[in-house]
Amino acid sequence: MADATGPSAAPATSAETEKKTSVGIVEPESKPQTAEIKRWGDMVDDEEQPGDTASSSDDKVVEELKVDKLAIDDSKKINKFLDDPEDSSIQAVTSGDTPYTSAATFEDLNLSPELLKGLYVEMKFQKPSKIQAISLPMILTPPYKDLIAQAHNGSGKTTCFVLGMLSRINPNVKRPQALCICPTRELSIQNLEVLQKMGKYTGISSECAVPMDSGNNDRSRSRPPIFAQVVIGTPGTIKRLMSQKKLSIIDMQVLVFDEADHMLAKDGFQDDSLRIMKDIERLNAQCQVLLFSATFDETVKNFVSRIVRKDYNQLFVKKEELSLDSVKQYKVYCPNEVTKITAIKDRILELGESLGQTIIFVNTKRSAGMLHKALVDLGYEVTTIHGALTHEDRDKIVKEFKDGLTQVLISTDVLARGFDQQQVNLVINYDLPVKYETPSEPHYEVYLHRIGRAGRFGRKGAVFNFVMTDRDMMIMEKIDKYFGTKVKEVPSWNSEEDFKAALKEAGLL
Ligand code: ADP
Ligand code: MG
């Protein structure tokens, strides 16, 4: 395993501090600040605060699950990457001679009746998606080999590692036995919610380990030790709890990295992730490591294959096969910022709720604040999220959007990965995603993750990429080339017919 170097700096202070005036509106403050060091990591990860959410699933006992009554509706075939385990777009490389048979039904997986009830009754799932059918036997079969798993956005990876964690918990051991590390508090909370819902009838306890609000900051009242059997959180908080000996790793059976390519990238959370992994491995050489993401570029793929145990299993997808057919991608030439805002206003917001929910991605907090103000001044209701808001406000804005109380959310890349809201049909790249160090280069992975916020689990979706400069044009060309796509052009930013035609083609109108 590569060496973990000391603690890494949490990304995120902005070039200007921003003060919130009302939900989602930001105003610059005059205080000088440290320069922004990372693009993707707009999230402020990790200041441990007391009073973290601690919750455990309820202890209900299942009486009896009539599994045979829960018929599978085969007529609902959606997409080949979801449905067809024989299709070649996900390639499996298994190690050694452990045989694995893909699971046509959840019953094939020898899950406990409590977990099956969670899947059918709580989650309302009917049968495993393709990535679930292929990866779950690998995850759940002794000798519990490590797994590097790549699969499309929205194809159900969470269920793979959540079932992996829940299946390995010894109910008699009231200490942490499974740990999942995620890049943001939003994703940690979302994954915990999925785990608690799916595991509702198991009696397994779980807890979130994410930074809490500075408003409650009282370091003398420190956080109690964690007894929950599953812990999900962000790397800085997890690492701190481990070094404070408040998170015991002695019984750890499963260690998951969601968005693993980012968690183990140099410009991501590599240092913290490796430290956590190494500490656990030292005490528990048999702990299973599961790495999940929709993207693994070559560098990170090579790296992660060296840090897992030798006989690991691997699932991967060629980058040319990663784009979702059900999400139509467009580019729109807008000569300046004013036309970009006008296009959003007249061509999208005017269509109202018939489009479902929309996420507008921007590259900076400044851009988020500017767009927010412009749209609110024009009389539209939008909310905005980025890493400089308080945790409380971030949670509130996400909750309102998830509850359907807001329709249009402006976001930096804090929500680019993992965020799962089935009602999101439309993604707008107000700014195209570029590498922070070399802004003439597209950030391919971020592009794929952003557009994957639409079209969850085979649903229809559309993406509008706003192209303003020559550099933007080149970036779109490079994106096309990289993913083997041909992003269509909407002929005029100013034409209602053009936008409607695009949305119709995408199946949204
Ligand atoms: P990703 O692969 O991007 O992590 P998620 O795990 O967030 O995808 O799942 C995307 C959506 O698909 C979620 O809303 C989830 O509830 C739904 N989903 C996952 N598995 C199934 C299934 N077997 N049947 C129906 N819906 C599913
Ligand atoms: Mg995910």
Automatic annotation (TrEMBL):
<feature type="domain" description="Helicase ATP-binding">
    <location>
        <begin position="138"/>
        <end position="314"/>
    </location>
</feature>
<dbReference type="Pfam" id="PF00270">
    <property type="entry name" value="DEAD"/>
</dbReference>
<feature type="domain" description="DEAD-box RNA helicase Q">
    <location>
        <begin position="104"/>
        <end position="133"/>
    </location>
</feature>
<dbReference type="InterPro" id="IPR001650">
    <property type="entry name" value="Helicase_C-like"/>
</dbReference>
<feature type="compositionally biased region" description="Low complexity">
    <location>
        <begin position="1"/>
        <end position="15"/>
    </location>
</feature>
<dbReference type="Pfam" id="PF00271">
    <property type="entry name" value="Helicase_C"/>
</dbReference>
<dbReference type="InterPro" id="IPR027417">
    <property type="entry name" value="P-loop_NTPase"/>
</dbReference>
<feature type="domain" description="Helicase C-terminal">
    <location>
        <begin position="343"/>
        <end position="498"/>
    </location>
</feature>
<keyword id="KW-0067">ATP-binding</keyword>
<keyword id="KW-0547">Nucleotide-binding</keyword>
<feature type="region of interest" description="Disordered">
    <location>
        <begin position="1"/>
        <end position="60"/>
    </location>
</feature>
<dbReference type="InterPro" id="IPR014001">
    <property type="entry name" value="Helicase_ATP-bd"/>
</dbReference>
<dbReference type="InterPro" id="IPR011545">
    <property type="entry name" value="DEAD/DEAH_box_helicase_dom"/>
</dbReference>
<protein>
    <recommendedName>
        <fullName>RNA helicase</fullName>
        <ecNumber>3.6.4.13</ecNumber>
    </recommendedName>
</protein>
<keyword id="KW-0378">Hydrolase</keyword>
<feature type="short sequence motif" description="Q motif">
    <location>
        <begin position="104"/>
        <end position="133"/>
    </location>
</feature>
<keyword id="KW-0347">Helicase</keyword>
<dbReference type="InterPro" id="IPR014014">
    <property type="entry name" value="RNA_helicase_DEAD_Q_motif"/>
</dbReference>
<keyword id="KW-0694">RNA-binding</keyword>
